[in-house]
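quick one, 339 residues, struct below
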Amino acid sequence: MNIFILGANGFIGSSLVEHLLEKTEHKITALDIRQNNIEHSLSNSKLQFKLGSLLEECDWIENKIRSCDVVIPLAAIATPGTYVTDPIRIFELDFEANLSIVRLCVKHQKRVIFPSTSEVYGMCPDEVFDEETSNCVTGPIQKERWIYSCSKQMMDRIIYAYGSRNGLPYTLFRPFNWMGPRLDNILNPNPAGSRAVTQFIGNILRGQPITLVDGGKQRRSFIDIDDGISALLKIIENKDNCAHQKIFNIGNPENDISIRDLVELLISLIKTYPKYKALAEKTELLNLSGEEHFGKGYQDVPHRVPSIQRAKNDLHWTPLIDIKTSLKKTLDYHLEEKK
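---
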């Protein structure tokens, strides 16, 4: 199989490339504006990588889509702080640029595996979010935080419509707080530049207090990147058409935890690293409102628990890695990198 991955250097993309090269014989063509996360894979003969932007390599991208079997457009901005500080940029990349890719898949009738997001459920009141029955509930227009959710939701709806009206072969997968090595740069001090786990690790290592938005009572279901990628590999294989024109939540409801408890677990784990124990012990926790921390355009989500029954039934997939093990693996990677 020839697989075309856009955004191959990102968190999901770099891990997917690594697993595909190690575990399959598929050939990969990949594009990204950076290559630091996949440097170790560039010498592999099964990988053809191009350094460039999907906004500028239009002809090259169409040629690759024409000749591949599966397209996986992973290029997106997925840091909540950016939703508020630069919503237009979110729309231009996460919606407009990806819409162009999907339309090329329709034109050439190529299978597309598209990363939706758990954010599409927004403030859905359901205790557990189901791919086919849960409503997508977002806030008022002035809460610019929802630009990401709406951009992804529109992509979901467009891909679904192309599937039902034009026969586009697709799978949508919705990651629920994937975490692990290479998630973000822990050295980036910008609150808009990282997601929760790496932001908190960075705060501790820089000797900074950790901000708990609204006391950290929000709950999230975290999943290890290796569990997520194992589901994605099954989607790519599509044995007996098991993933054809379907939507899958990819998360771990067993790892549901409040943000405050996540921070406290992180601090306790970092204390086990002698070099960083003192920093962890000195870490202060600050309580701020979402508006104080992110700005007036922010609005939070109280909980986010996936139903994964469809993935269990259709993909024969179950996540295996508990949150403490996943955090320890993430810390080993980052703290080893800093030695």
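The domain at 76-182+223-254+304-320 is CATH 3.40.50.720 (Rossmann fold).
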